[in-house]
Specification:
Distance between the termini: 24 Å
Radius of gyration: 23 Å
Number of helices: 16
Shape: globular
Order of helices and strands: HHHHHHHHHHHHHHHH
Oligomer: single chain
Helix content: 55-70%
Length: 331
C-alpha cells in the first residue's frame, strides 16, 4: 500500500513525562517505515518513557533549577504560547550547555511545532552529551527516519541496539528502518530477533512477511502474514500482505475472499480495491473488476488515482461509457 505511511504529524503526539521533571513531548510516535505499506502500522504512535539521562553529563550545583525552567516552558506550551515556550528553552540550552535534558526539551518542543529538521541539532547535541543513553539515541534515530535520513537513522538505531540489545522495540524499529533502506538481510535478522523476544509484535511479523514477498518466498510470507493478522485481526494491511502472497501463489479466489471480508474505511483504500480487481481479472472476471472500481470512483469522484485505475479496467473490459471516468482522471 502507499507509504508508511501515514506518518503522524509531530504535533499530534500526546505529551509524556520523563523522570526527573516535566518534559514537553517524545518523538517516538513519529516513525515512518519507508518501503512498507502505508497502513502497515496504523498510527505508528508508541511513546518512549525515557529514564534519567546517564553517564558522562555534568550536573550543575542545583539540578532542580533546570527542571523548573522546563516546567515553565511546558506551562507556556499548554497555555498555547509556543513561542514563549521556545524562547524559554532556547535560553535554557545557553544557560545549561552541559545538560542533555535542556536540549531534549527544546528539541521535543520543536517537534510538537512540526519542525523536525530544526529539532535535529538539539537531539544531536543531547546525544553528544549522553552518548551511552540508548533511549536518547532511539529518539534521535526515530526523528532521522521521519525527515528521510535513512542511512543515519539505521546507524543510530543500531547504536541503540548495541547499548540495549535486549530491547525488542529497538530491534523492531531497526529492522523496519533497514527494510526501508533496502537491507533485507539485516532487516530479517533484527526483526526475527524482535519477534523472538516479543512474540506479540504484529508489525514485526508483517514486516517479515513483506521481506518474504520481496524474495518470492511465498509460504514464508503467508506464515508471517497470518501470524500478524492473528495478533491484529482488524488490520487491513495484513490482509493485503496475505492476499498478495495468495495471488502470487495462483490462488486469486482465496485472496479475493480475504479482501472482501475486510471491514472499516481502509477496506476501500485504492491498494485494496486494486488488488481485488487484479484477482477478479485473474479469474476472468474483467467486467466485475471494472464495475468494482467504477463504483468506488463514483463514491469518491475527487480521487484521480482511483479514476485512472477504474478507467484502465473499463477499457480492458471493453466498456465504452467511460466519459465520466476520463473527466475525473483528467481533472
Amino acid at each position: 500500500m502507499t507509504t508508511p505511511p501515514e506518518s503522524p504529524s509531530p504535533a499530534s503526539n500526546p505529551r509524556t513525562r520523563r523522570a526527573p521533571g516535566p518534559v514537553i513531548v517524545s518523538v517516538v510516535g513519529l516513525l515512518a517505515v519507508a518501503g512498507v505499506a502505508a497502513i502497515l502500522v496504523p498510527g505508528l504512535s508508541s511513546h518512549l518513557q525515557r529514564q534519567k539521562l546517564v553517564e558522562g553529563a555534568q550536573q550543575p550545583a542545583d539540578p532542580s533549577s533546570l527542571a523548573s525552567v522546563i516546567a515553565a516552558a511546558e506551562t507556556a506550551a499548554r497555555q498555547d504560547q509556543p513561542q514563549q515556550a521556545e524562547a524559554i528553552l532556547r535560553q535554557a540550552v545557553r544557560d545549561y550547555p552541559s545538560r542533555p535534558d535542556a536540549f531534549i526539551a527544546l528539541a521535543d518542543l520543536l517537534v510538537t511545532r512540526n519542525q523536525p529538521e530544526a529539532a535535529l541539532p538539539f537531539y544531536r547535541e543531547a546525544v553528544r552529551l549522553a552518548p551511552k543513553d540508548a533511549a536518547l539515541r532511539f529518539s534521535l534515530a526515530t526523528l532521522l527516519n521521519v525527515v528521510g535520513d535513512r542511512a543515519e537513522a539505521v546507524g543510530e538505531f543500531s547504536r541503540a541496539v548495541e547499548l540495549a540489545p535486549g530491547n525488542p522495540s529497538y530491534l523492531l524499529y531497526l529492522g523496519h528502518a533497514q527494510l526501508g533502506a533496502g537491507d533485507l538481510a539485516g532487516a530479517r535478522l533484527n526483526l526475527t530477533k524482535a519477534v523472538a523476544l516479543a512474540p506479540d509484535k504484529d508489525t514485526g511479523f508483517a514486516a517479515l512477511a513483506e521481506i518474504a514477498l520481496r524474495e518470492n518466498a511465498l509460504p514464508i510470507a503467508l506464515q508471517h502474514a497470518r501470524k500478524a493478522r492473528e495478533l491484529s485481526p482488524g488490520n487491513v494491511a495484513y490482509r493485503v500482505i496475505e492476499a498478495r502472497a495468495l495471488k502470487r501463489s495462483n490462488r486469486p479466489d482465496e485472496a479475493l475472499a480475504l479482501l472482501e471480508a475486510a471491514e472499516g474505511p481502509r477496506a476501500r483504500d485504492l491498494p485494496v480495491l486494486s488488488l481485488r480487481a487484479e484477482c477478479l481479472a485473474m479469474m476472468n472476471r474483467a467486467s466485475d473488476a471494472a464495475a468494482l472500481l467504477r463504483q468506488a470512483s463514483d463514491e469518491a469522484p475527487a480521487d484521480k488515482a482511483l479514476a485512472r485505475e477504474a478507467l484502465e479496467y473499463a477499457k480492458r473490459a471493453g466498456l465504452t461509457d467511460v466519459a465520466a471516468l476520463q473527466d475525473r482522471a483528467a481533472e
